[in-house]
Amino acid sequence: MRRIFGIALAALLIGGVIAVILVGHGDPGTASTATRTVRGVIGSEKAEFFNDPDVVKALAAKGYTVRTETSGSWAMDKLPLDQYDFAFPSSSEPAHGIEAKAKLQGAQTTRPFYSPLVVVARANAAKVLADNKLVTMTGTHTGTLLMGPYLKAAAEDRTWQQLPGAAADAELTGTVFIKTTDPASSNSGALFLAAASNVANGNTVVSDDAGINRTAPLLRKLIAVQGALPPSTDDPFRAFVSGAGDPLILVYESQVAALLLQKQQPADLAAMVVLYPDTTVNSAHSFVPLNDKAKDLGGLLATDPALRQLAVRHGLRPQDGLIEFTTATAPHTDYLNQKLTGIRQVNTPTVTILMTLAARAEAQGDTP
Questions:
Q1: Residue 14 to residues 3, 6, 22, 23, 215, Cα–Cα distance (Å)
Q2: Nearest-5° angle of CA 338, CA 344, CA 350?
Q3: Mean pLDDT, all residues of the chain
Q4: Buried b (16+ CB within 10 A) or exposed e, 152-184
Q5: 211-235 pLDDT, tens per residue?
């Protein structure tokens, strides 16, 4: 009996070991757990996306644990890139600098999603701008910022007090300006200068010293009036929706859309108007793999249906995903210009010229 019991016990133990091995490997047909950890540097506007537990779970099912740090997009090429597996700036322009710094050959850069720049405005400020023909309202909470008239007002140092209808609002004082991020390091600020310089250069991309000299004085006015410039859109937008901050702030549409889609609607949102500049540069978030560990992650973000839906939930527009975005945001058309109707998309200057424009805009004078 002892011998029979011993044989049976041995068989049970062997069977248990085999079962543990099978469970450890898992069924190839089921979702996998994270098998590799990759570290990346991203624009701060994507931090909530990567921190979303559902995104973490979806990435783990595809074999990834993603650790991120934030940086201004135009400052990423100054980081020790060999310490990261990928960089994810907010547009294609800084991606070129990252590729060059990392000495990448045939980089597999992908652009999984994009977001237009918008100006969020207090309802009272938007009404004054509309009454003075600097804005065209297209709904209760959305409109179009007319860049030509706005830049003319900026060139003339126009104040709120000079605009009929502003006197009734005590908060509308001083020079009319849009609060932006630092264009030397932050993508949104740089792209706003790209759009403004295009309009100021006769609706033509600035491509030479003559264009730089022609547009630099105006760009300097746009920046000088703001005082300290934030490094990202995150803090100014949070301040705005809490009822603080300036009456006009440049942010990404994704930040507004995410609030609406996730039903995180503070009471102050009722007094917010979303203005789409009629001349703009879309922000194409560009994934740059810095080594083989992350080479497939950008394509995964671009094509995986679950990750695309999660990107939309965070207000991002998937490339070639207009239907996905318009379907999800259908209840919020009073705030969002879903199809970007009436918006002129322009090209950016070269990286060298755009950074020269940013440096001139932040300089103490306009002398080249």
A1: 17, 12, 12, 14, 78
A2: 120
A3: 88
A4: ebbeeebebeebeebeeeeebeebbbbbbbbbb
A5: 999 999 999 999 999 999 999 898 8
